[in-house]
Each structure stands twice: as C-alpha cells, then as structure tokens.
Structure of SPOR domain-containing protein:
Amino acid sequence: MTHKNKITVKINGDKSTGMNEDSFPNRSAWFEQAASLEDDEREEIDLLEKDQSTDYSMPQKRKKSKINSSNLKLFALTACCAIIIAVGFGFIMLKMFVEIDNQNALPSNATTTSQTTDSTESTTTPVVTDSQETDLAIPALQAFVLQLGVFSDQLKAEEWQEKVKNSGQESMIWEIDGEFRLFAGVSSTKKEAKFQAQLLQESGQDIYVREWKTSEKTIEVNAEVAEWLQSFSPLWVETTAGNLNDQEWEEWLNTAPEGLSDPLLALKGKTKTMYDLLVTQAKQDQLIQVRLLEMWYLYQNL
C-alpha cells in the first residue's frame, strides 16, 4: 500500500516522493523563507498602520492651523476697524471744537468792537431810536361831568345835541358800550361841577352831575411820540382844575413830532382849538370845558 500511495512533491523544480523529513532537504530553508515573508508582511502592515495614523493626524493639525489663522485675521480686521472708527471720531470731534471756537470768536469780536465804539459813553443803557416802537401807558383819568342825557341811538343823541346848541350851549357826544352820552361840561371837583350845572339850568337844561372815569391802557408808539404824549395828561388835569397856562399848551403844540397818525392829528387839532379859546375867552368858559371833554375822549381812544 505504501508503494501504491506515493506522494510526489516538487520543490524548486525537483520531484520528491515520500512524506519523511529526509524527503525535504530544504525544509528548514523553506520555513525560514516563509517566516521571513511573514515578517515582511507584518512589517508592511505595521507601516501601513503608521501611515494611516499619520494621515489621520495631519488634517487635525491643518484644521487647528486654519482656526488659528482665521482668529488672527478676525483680530486684525477688528483692530483695523477700531482704528478707523477712532480716527474718524477724532476728526469729527476736532471739527466740532474748531467750529465752536469760531462761533465764540465772533461774539467776542463783536463785543470788542461794541466796547470800542461805546467807550466814550458813560452808560450801558441801550439807546432806543425814534423809529422803534415802544409801549406808552395812557393813565387813568377822573373828573366830574355835566350829563344832559343817555341815548341808545346816535341819531337821537345828535338831535338832542342840536337842540342844546340852539339854546346857546355847547355839548359833546361820548360813545361807550353801545350808549351815547351827552356831556356839557367837566370839572375836577364835584362842588365846581354843581356850580357849573346851576349856570346851565338857568337856560332851561336838565343837568345831572356824575363822576366819570377812564381806565389805564397801553399803546405802541415811537419814542418821540411817546415823549410828546407823556406831558399831555398832566396839562389836561391842571387845565380841568382851573390852573390854566396857555404857554405850556403852546409849547406842547409846537413840539409835536412830524408824521403823526390820524388819531394823534385829531387830538392835536382839538387841543389847538382849546388853546385858542384860552387866549381869547374867560378861563372857566363852558366852551373850554366841552373842548377839554373832547380832548379827553380822543386821548382815551388812541
């Protein structure tokens, strides 16, 4: 059986039969070669593993490098923006301070010029020119009047005024609050007014003595007119009290400013009429009293 089942083995091209160790003269060398091949394969596997681990570690380093580079770029960009903003803000603030200094310099120069121009003046009170408007207080006035009647219609008042004139007496119409009062005289005291009323009653007139007042008011006129009008009310009060001085009225008329308004021209004209009576008539003439009433009415309605 052993001969029938021979096994033939080729080793390096040589045929060999049998299974004993002697049949494999290069058996030891073959195992050494196989072991060497196995070691080479293991070394190759180890090298591959090392290469693979090295390949995996490299992207991580690159990623970290990219992150660091990105952070540096962001920091640099932020720093540049901060510098640009700071420089721009600095220029803006510098421009603002320069403009403020220029504005402050203008009033300072104007003040210096004004002080130089006004160095010869002894007062710092502002000068009001004649063309500038100023407030003038029209003072409240009070007196006792001789009243002939009160009418709700102007035509009725004018008809009654005509009747009084036909009887030889003068009167004037004072319109106030929709009523028309007919006055025939004025005095500074009630006693004097009653005396004048008795004289008029002898001519057949019904006279009622009453106190009459006007309120204070303020008007706007230029400085020259204001100075001129301020002396009117004291003169009027003195004249009503019987202290007549035609020279003072003459001076007042002569110092009237040019370019008076229509109400002021009417007041001046009525005063001129009264002044003419002062020169030619008795000081307590009833006609003078009526002119004083007309002057009062015009003065109050300026």
